[in-house]
Amino acid sequence: MAGTRIWDLPTRLFHWLLATLVVFSVVTAKVGGLWMDWHMRSGYTILALVLFRILWGCAGSHYARFGNFVRPPTVVLAYLRGRVGHVAGHSPIGALSVIALLSALLLQAATGLFTSDDSFTEGPLARLASDMVVDRLSTIHRYGEWAIFALVGLHVAAIAYYSTVRGVVLVGPMITGKHPSSDIVAAEDGASLRMRALVFSVIAAGLVGYLVTL
Questions:
Q1: What is the tens place of the pLDDT at every residue in 97-153?
Q2: Residue 48: closest CA among 185, 152, 200, 214
């Protein structure tokens, strides 16, 4: 496919795996019962993915780095007023969506480690906290899903708006990694970058594995 690489393979794998696990986590939580074991495992994986994305946002490819897409409020306002253009990668508004989603998912996954339903399901760190702390974090976790629903809904609505109204294709590049324009900076996506991603993945998974076995 012609075009310029903007999304490296690790970023694309992260995106689609995270989306799949968020849906899986919601479904397993609603079904309950023995599926809660899978809900917990999904939550651990989401936490590892978010930690990986934080690392990747600091040392990933060009368009994946926070420093290359997170903009100050003045730029966001200028973009909303049509005074600042956007070609590839996350727009100033898209950047806010990314940060909000990552923050919400990090909070949701972290509080899940301490949750308890006083019956069958208990997070791996619940025994390390007082009943009052567990109760508060369980409440945050329970209501946090509504924040995630809202953010995911806005994310999907924004994609639909950009695709249908502004004619900007967002889903395709996240699948192929390619942007149709040739006048933009190409993102690195070679073996060394993928090895770096693997190292970050192991670090993130190892940290989560350590936390859940405390």
A1: 999 999 999 999 999 999 988 777 889 999 999 999 999 999 999 999 999 999 999
A2: 200
Segment 167-178, tens digit of pLDDT:
777 888 899 999
Position of tokens 């949750």?
A: 115
Helix axes 191-212, 9-31, angle to 10 degrees: 30
Q: How far is residue 99's CA from residue 105's CA, in Å, rounded to a whole number? A: 10
In the chain, what is the straight-line distance between the N-terminal and C-terminal CA atoms, in Å? 48
What residues does each domain of the chain span?
A: 4-212
CB 139 within 8 A of CB 165: no
Q: Tens of pLDDT along 16-52?
A: 999 999 999 999 999 988 899 999 999 999 999 999 9
| CATH H-level, domain 4-212: superfamily | Transmembrane di-heme cytochromes, Chain C (1.20.950.20)
Task: Report the predicted TM-score, pTM, of the whole model to 2 decimal places.
Answer: 0.93
Both tokens of residue 177? 């990694």
- Cβ atoms of 50 and 106 within 8 Å: the answer is yes
